[in-house]
Amino acid sequence: MRNNLQQQFYKLYHKNAESAFFSPGRVNLIGEHIDYNGGLVMPCAITFGTYLLVSPNEDNVFRLRSLNFDDQLDIPLQRDYTKTGPGWFNYPLGIIDYFLRDGHRLRGIDMMFYGDIPISSGLSSSASIEVVTAFALNELLDCGYTKLDLVKLSKSVENNFIGVNSGIMDQFAVAFGEKNKALMLNCDTLDYQAVDTNLGNYILAIINTNKPRKLAESKYNERVQECQAALAALQQKLDIQNLCDIDTATFNQYKYLIKDEVLSRRAQHVIEENDRVKLAASALSKNNLAEFGRLMYASHDSLRDLYEVSGRELDTITEYAKTNTNVAGARMTGAGFGGCAIALVKEYAFDNFSDQITAYYTDKIGYAPSVYRSLIGDGVRVLK
Ligand code: GLA
Fold first, then answer.
1. pLDDT tens digits for 258-291?
2. I need a labelling partner for 265 at 20 to 30 A (CA). Which of 145, 207, 310, 353 fits?
3. Degrees (nearest 5) of the Cα angle 226, 230, 254?
């Protein structure tokens, strides 16, 4: 891969890249729409990700090119930047802008990106490109940011430059991910533990709905606002900072404070899902994959009925999964509104699962999904 990318870099810039970096994508095992409510999530970095090859130039220009997209940006070094159009290059441009505004003296850099994360699939290609760019600039210019700084600044670019009010889970997972481990992350304190994902004779399958995602960003921001409104209602009587500061029993006692029925359902999902993550962590530590799978289905049902971020395509996947006795559990992963689902599938039955779900889904939806065997990999790094 590296050699091939070096050749591509040479073709683009007529010189060799000086260094190369990689940042993965992520899946979230459970704990969805929790991070911006200060609760527990359980993401893993995957082996798909974003490669970035770079070489500084003498002409004070940032050249942002990708092997995945035709559009590109060549932009002279300025004091700062703003988002320009819908192009992919806004992610690295936002990171460059952050470094500049934070007082770092930058010079021009030729950059070439290549990603093998399916685009718009909900596997965090955006966090991956943000973090790989931030990591590379930090290394090249010796800016002295810690990995946690890079996570926070990438999230800030997503929120303030790109305009999506996401939580910290994706950037954290792609930076701190470890091979064959899930991160039990407390999104309030940012304490985390890397726990073994010992799946026994199961493997993790990723099923991409291949549904073009529309309105995902505006619907996402709408959910964030709904949670804030529900929290404000509960704060009339409860001294809490986040929805996840209370458990289901306390919520049931105080939910009368939330007068709006839609807001109440949103909060119910968040608080019950946070409790489910605790149960899931305990099930995983006891290798009780049947229980873990049951919690995955419960998570999906709640995202469908209470949080309303699923859709016919994602529901069709879990609907099929429930009919297959070689599947322990399945659920949508990430923001929803299309994107991907994950399933725990008996390893020996994976090929059959893949064929069957493809046939079932194609029959119901009219086009095929993509099914991958997912490997849990390491976080952002320099490629030697
Ligand atoms: C997206 C966001 C994350 C998180 C998930 C839902 O991936 O970027 O911060 O909120 O959705 O769990």
1. 999 999 999 999 999 999 999 999 999 999 999 9
2. 207
3. 155
CA of 14 to the centre of ligand 1 (A): 39
CA 75 to chain centre: 28
CA distance 234 to 199: 38
Instruction: Give yes or no for residue 43 CB within 6 A of ligand 1.
Output: no
Domains recognised in the chain with CATH numbers: 2-195 (3.30.230.10), 197-374 (3.30.70.890)
Kindly report, residue by residue over 327-382, the tens digit of the pLDDT. Answer: 999 999 999 999 999 999 999 999 999 999 999 999 999 999 999 998 899 999 99
Q: Report CA(333)–ligand 1 centroid distance (Å).
A: 9
- Residue 32 CB less than 6 A away from ligand 1: yes
The tens digit of pLDDT for each residue in 223-265 reads 999 999 999 999 999 999 999 999 999 999 999 999 999 999 9
- 378 flagged as catalytic: no
Choose among 287, 282, 321: nearest CA to 301.
321
Interval between CA 137 and ligand 1 midpoint (Å): 25
Q: Whose CA is nearest to atom 1 of ligand 1?
A: 335
Catalytic: which of 170, 245, 275, 315?
170
Atom in ligand 1 nearest the alpha carbon of residue 35 = 10
Q: How confident is the model at residue 121 (pLDDT cuts 50, 70, 90)?
A: confident
